[in-house]
Amino acid sequence: MPEQEPPPAAPKPRRRQARGERRAAQLLDAAAVVFSRVGYTAASTNAIAREAEVSPGTLYQFFPNKEAIAVELGNRLLEQWRESYGQALSAANLDLPLAELLDAVVDPLLEFNAQNPAFHVLMHGPDAPGQVTAAFEAFHSVVLHRIEEILATYLPEAPKAETTRVTTTTLALFKAGLDLIAAHPDEREEYQEELKKVLFRYLDPMLCEEPPAPGAAAQQPEA
């Protein structure tokens, strides 16, 4: 009988790829620590390699320079931010009273920023790579439009320009709160509560207690 061919060898390239993905993730985690500690400009590939406990040569096998690391890390963080934003503005939360709505929306978003300080450095820092900030600005426009849609249901008779101003101001207040929290990490919870107070006092006088029923704005009052 002819000899049977041996079974095919295990897919070694796939195992190498998986190991490579883990090493790349390790380097991105290290970069997040370094960027958070010293900022983007002061960070170096050598510092990132030290934080990851690998040689600079190993780092350059995965990323050609610091900017490439920042872009990859920014993409990863922005995707996580999208998930947090989607959960925070889920339809279930929109039925809550304003104070509870702010808890449901603001708390998880601030928690994300607290757990990922590199996000603030890369997305809001003045020296972050343009590709990173451009991606964030594109998503920021999506967030702005979504919040404007939500506020429009609470302000059914307001002109669109007014709703846009309220939306822009609300986001500006939120961003200012992020800056304050980042500057006072030892008092994060206290500043978090202050931010929600500011948002509540700004929005509460303008908003209806609950959104109008669909089509209600188009109904004519009875004679």
CATH class of the domain at 66-210: Mainly Alpha
Elements, N to C (H/E): HHHHHHHHH
> What is the count of DSSP helices, taking H or I runs of 4+ residues?
9
Q: Which value, in Å, is the CA radius of gyration?
A: 24 Å
CATH topology of the domain at 66-210: Tetracycline Repressor, domain 2
CATH second-level architecture of the domain at 66-210: Orthogonal Bundle
Low-confidence blocks of residues:
1-16, 214-223
Strand content: under 5%
Q: Assign an overall shape.
A: elongated
Give the proportion of residues in helices: 55-70%
Strands, total number = 0
The largest β sheet comes out as: none
- Average pLDDT score: 83
Pfam families: TetR_C_15, TetR_N
Keywords: DNA-binding, Transcription, Transcription regulation
Protein name: DNA-binding transcriptional regulator, AcrR family
GO molecular function: DNA-binding transcription factor activity; transcription cis-regulatory region binding
